[in-house]
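Worked Example 4.2. Consider the chain below.
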Amino acid sequence: MVGTPHCARITVGWTYLDTAIQAENVFYLQDPTDAIFASPALTAAAVNTAVISDLVPVSEVQVIYNQVGFEDVRTVPFGGLVFSTGPHPGTGGFGGAALPPDVALAIKKGTGGLGRSARGRWYFPVANTANLLHPSEVKPTWATAIVNALVNFQATVEAMVANSRY
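Applying the procedure from the previous section yields the following structure tokens:
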């Protein structure tokens, strides 16, 4: 394992209903000033604020956001913390029956950059039959809402880094 300068591994954790399943989505946050490392707790709190403002409104009530992880990947060995942040259940409230927690919409992320650092996937839990148009197809309006929420989430997190001088 090689360290990556100015980067932290961030996880957004969530549970599903009252199950013991702890799921998470992962992304990497780069700050050329390293200000995000001055206080991992403040960085995690800022990410949690973005989760609440951008992801909770389009998530179903079955999805309960409950933690943000922060791992310093600048030097080996890596080290980090997981901060409890919830519970923050989704407020989408579209109705319908619950779906298994592994039913997810895979959102592909692409940027203008080359290499693995310029792409990725975010697995967004479908969670509810009300989001389905057909058994294997999500409603286009819901998919658009999710993509817009993730775009807003990314913009919120990037603005946080640009303004972070903890």
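Strands lie at 7-16, 22-30, 63-72, 79-89, 104-110, 119-125, 132-134, 137-138. The first strand starts at residue 7 and ends at 16. Compare this with Example 4.1 before moving on.
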